[in-house]
Amino acid sequence: MKIKRSLGVLLILGAAASFALMNYFVSAAGALPVMQKVFFRNLIATFLVLIPLLCEKQKLRIKGKETLFWLFLRAAIGFLGVVLNFYAIDHIGSISDASMLNKLSPFFAILFSVLLLKERPKLPEIFFVLMAFAGAMLVIRPSFSMEVLPALAGFAGGACAGFAYTCVRVLGLKGERGAITVFFFSAFSTLVSLPFFIAFYTPMSAWQLTALLLSGVSAAAGQFFITAAYRLAPAKEIAVFDYAQVIFAALLGYFLLDELPAPLSFAGYAVIFLAAFLRYGYGLFLQKKQTRSSPPEAPAPPEPASSAPEAVSPPEETNDAPPENLP
Q1: Where are the domains of the chain?
Q2: How many Å apart are CA 129 and CA 107, to the nearest integer?
Q3: Which end of the chain has fewer CB atoms at under 10 Å, N or C?
Q4: Is 296 left (phi over 0), alpha (psi -120 to 50) or beta?
Q5: pLDDT of 59-70, one tens digit each?
Q6: DSSP string across 40-108
Q7: Is residue 317 classed as helix, strand or coil in its secondary structure?
Q8: Which residues, other chains included, contact 281 with Cβ-Cβ below 8 Å and sequence gap of 6+?
Q9: Are 20 and 248 in contact (CB under 8 A)?
Q10: pLDDT tens digits, residue range 187-207?
């Protein structure tokens, strides 16, 4: 188990590095329309997810009509989150700031779980949410000028990601495959951004095209890394390491883009990191407490012998697909 957990941590760090690279390539592509960047980011991911899906027995079949609404809702809100995140990357002046605001999604997921899943957060969880939002205010530095709009877009992008993450949980509870959820989102985003891409197409240099293609490859790599990580270890044990994306983004921004976040941004990072680690520790505490309080299972009584052979029922299909990085 320790080996699997260690591998899970390494893989989720690989995912964090991949998504930080995606943000870097989006920024390095320069002054191109946001929808042009969104199109390439999702086009590559769509084909890379489609290939393994077509090799499965169920192929592109969805669970049923009851999941179709949630697939559309997750895709639409996730698409809006990507647009807002890319706008923030282009205009906020620091890819680490944009990455950190997007990493508020787990805290927004707690709030949206109250609305969509009727879950009641515990008092410490509410405190962690408020703490994270306080850190976000240090990054955003609210003012009454138009300069705050990119930061607010990044904040709203994190909210959309949190809503999309909650939709993914609903889909998981309804038995939908994780790969279908990822493909549906990527294909939806590609098709919706296509008309804007055509209408507002801006000619690209060889480097800009390469950067956009690499942003799509990085995003797909991040998806595969995070999928493999959650297959090896539970999310509650390794998800906190996904915040390393902000550190990777800060390093890429400093060495390759000459970006240096403001001092208040570093203070905001520290507060949000602390909230994430406290939430992580609290989750482990609840897990241990539940394990200790659970009584040992009593052995099942022997079944009476029967001359007639019992019918063997087929094993139930379970949805063990891991959560994805959102949006």
Answers
A1: 2-293
A2: 5
A3: N
A4: beta
A5: 888 988 889 999
A6: HHHHHHHHHHHHHHHHSSSTT--S-HHHHHHHHHHHHHHHHHHHHHHHHHHHSS-HHHHHHHHTTHHHH
A7: coil
A8: none
A9: yes
A10: 999 999 999 999 999 999 999
Query: What's the token pair of residue 292?
Result: 């200790």
Mean predicted confidence (pLDDT) in 93-105: 86
Least confident stretch, 50-54, 278-282, 303-307: 303-307
190, 193, 195, 201: CA torsion to nearest 10: -110
Judged by phi (left if over 0) then psi (alpha if -120 to 50, else beta), residue 312 lies in beta
Contacts of 225 (CB under 8 A, 6+ apart): 11, 12, 14, 15, 18
**Is the Cβ–Cβ distance between 107 and 132 less than 8 Å?**
yes
The pTM of this model reads 0.80
Enclosing H/E stretch for 170: helix 149-173
Computed on alpha carbons and rounded to an integer, the radius of gyration of the chain in Å comes to: 21
Cα–Cα distances (Å) from 127 to 27, 93, 115, 119, 272, in that order, read 34, 30, 18, 16, 12
Structural tokens at position 219? 């995003």
Angle, in degrees to the nearest 10, between helices 34-55 and 65-91: 140
Beta carbons within 10 angstroms of residue 104's beta carbon:
25
- For residues 97 and 268, give the distance between their C-alpha atoms in angstroms, rounded to a whole number: 9
Distance of CA 17 to the CA centre of its chain: 14
Q: How far, in Å, are 20, 27, 195, 224 from residue 244 at the CA level?
A: 9, 19, 35, 17
Cβ atoms of 48 and 220 closer than 8 Å: yes
pLDDT for res 200:
94
Whether the bond into 304 is cis, omega within 30 of 0: no
